[in-house]
């Protein structure tokens, strides 16, 4: 999911010169760390909520009769893990439907967005025929 979010939304910084290479490495490392922490936190939160919901919604006797053995916490944890993993993959694919601007607004601060806009404008001016 992390790779999908970064690649699909164009969050990977490509250096345009030797001077900017170190900056690009720093920005890419920060992007990977930020997206990774966000995805991990959301995954753990979703997992905890799903386990709690499964414990409330699925009666142990029904789960045991369906599994043909006495049910325990591990069965609920397994159901939650499968559900959350499938939901995470679906969420990553669904993020492809969001606009790149919406993802960038969620990923970057206002100052970083302004910096990227200035760099884009400078690249456009440098590439225009004279």
Cα shape: elongated
Order of helices and strands: HHHHHH
Number of domains: 1
Percentage of residues in strands? under 5%
Quick recap of the structure?
With 130 residues, this protein is mainly α. 79% of the residues lie in helices and 0% in strands. It has one domain (2-127).
What do you see in this structure?
This protein starts with a helix and ends with a helix. It contains 6 helices and no strands. The protein is mainly α and 130 residues long. It has one domain.
Topology:
Blueprint: H1 2-8, H2 18-57, H3 60-67, H4 73-94, H5 100-107, H6 110-127
Helix pairs in contact: 1-2, 2-4
Structural key phrases:
130 residues; 6 helices
């Amino acid at each position: 999911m992390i790779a999908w979010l970064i690649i699909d939304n164009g969050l990977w910084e490509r250096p345009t010169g030797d001077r900017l290479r170190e900056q690009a490495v720093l920005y890419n490392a920060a992007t990977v760390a930020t997206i990774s922490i966000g995805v991990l936190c959301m995954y753990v939160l979703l997992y905890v909520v799903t386990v709690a919901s499964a414990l409330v919604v699925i009666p142990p006797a029904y789960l045991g009769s369906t599994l043909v053995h006495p049910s325990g916490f591990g069965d609920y944890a397994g159901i939650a893990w499968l559900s959350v993993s499938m939901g995470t993959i679906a969420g990553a694919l669904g993020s492809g439907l969001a606009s790149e601007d919406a993802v960038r607004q969620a990923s970057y601060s206002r100052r970083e967005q302004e910096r990227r806009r200035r760099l884009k404008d400078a690249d456009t001016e440098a590439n225009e025929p004279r």
